[in-house]
Automatic annotation (TrEMBL):
<protein>
    <recommendedName>
        <fullName>Secretin/TonB short N-terminal domain-containing protein</fullName>
    </recommendedName>
</protein>
<feature type="signal peptide">
    <location>
        <begin position="1"/>
        <end position="24"/>
    </location>
</feature>
<keyword id="KW-0732">Signal</keyword>
Length: 294
């Protein structure tokens, strides 16, 4: 009797083991069939790891395409044209000065003209009424012009220069003022030129080219400006109206920094930037020609 009971217990134990093995086999086959039917399905843990890797990778290389595009578009090695760099607002004004515009004015007051350009280009334009008053002009000077498909800077030259007016980027706005006052609004900029020369003679030649091409004639640079009520020493005596030379405009090469230091107007700085950029493009083109010749 005891032997019979022991045999029954052994049979039940073997039955349980066999049932468990069958259930495990069936579960594995079901899981395998599920993955085969839906290949995109994977564990949540694996998905999290993959997504995190992609996110980190995109963060690391987020600015790379833009940097590469800028380098490819420029066609030359990326280089900061001058220091200190323009502020965000000054960059916007500079960009819009090079943007196309249109102008169709008939006896339109100057203040309305500047307001039109301000709305069209989304920049702040300030009309220096005090400077205009000093030369006998007002903000209501009539403008008669019809232009299209030209840069904003060209349109402003056509409108302002006949009146004896000019524009400058000052205090992060585009200021309309007199030519005389614009010529006295100077900015110091430092231009890296290490890639355009290697010896004192080469730097001197570059400075000479800039002086001849970008700077106004010496007669204009020596123009004098009136100074009212200048007091000399402690005498307390006013000299009335005097004239002082515009001697603060300058250009110098700093060999130890391989840099060009210029203190001049916006117009001069614009010409210098254009000239240096063109020189770099010419040098790159000549380098390519030499490589092809070999």
């Amino acid at each position: 009797m005891q032997w019979f009971l022991k045999r029954n217990h052994l049979f039940v134990l073997l039955l349980c083991i066999s049932t468990g093995w069958v259930l495990m086999t069936v579960s594995a086959e079901v899981a395998q069939n599920t993955r085969a039917g839906n290949p995109d399905a994977s564990s949540e843990a694996d998905l999290d790891i993959v997504e995190q890797d992609v996110f980190v990778s995109s963060q690391k290389h987020q600015s790379t395409p833009q940097t590469q595009k800028q380098t490819a578009d420029s066609g030359i090695k990326s280089i900061q044209l001058f220091y200190p760099p323009l502020t965000k607002h000054a960059q916007t004004i500079q960009r819009e000065l090079n943007a196309e515009t249109k102008a169709d004015f008939s006896d339109t007051p100057l203040t309305e003209v500047t307001g039109f350009f301000q709305n069209q280009h989304g920049i702040n334009i300030f009309l220096d009424a005090l400077a205009l008053e000093q030369v006998g002009l007002t903000a209501k000077e009539p403008v008669n012009v019809s232009l299209s498909g030209i840069k904003l800077m060209s349109a402003l030259d056509i409108i302002l220069r006949p009146m004896g007016l000019d524009y400058v980027i000052d205090q992060e706005v585009l200021k309309i003022t007199t030519i005389e006052k614009a010529n006295r609004t100077l900015t110091v900029r430092i231009y890296p030129i290490a890639d355009l020369g290697s010896s004192p003679e080469e730097f001197a030649a570059l400075e000479n080219v800039i002086r001849n091409i970008c700077l106004p004639p010496s007669s204009m640079r020596q123009k004098t400006y009136p100074v009212d009520d200048l007091v000399i020493g402690d005498s307390g005596l006013s000299t009335g109206k005097l004239s002082v030379p515009d001697s603060s405009r300058s250009i110098s090469i700093v060999p130890q920094c391989q840099a060009l230091v210029v203190n001049d107007t916006d117009r001069v700085h614009f010409k210098i930037s254009e000239l240096l950029n063109q020189l770099r493009q010419v040098r790159k083109a000549q380098t390519s020609l030499k490589s092809e010749a070999k």
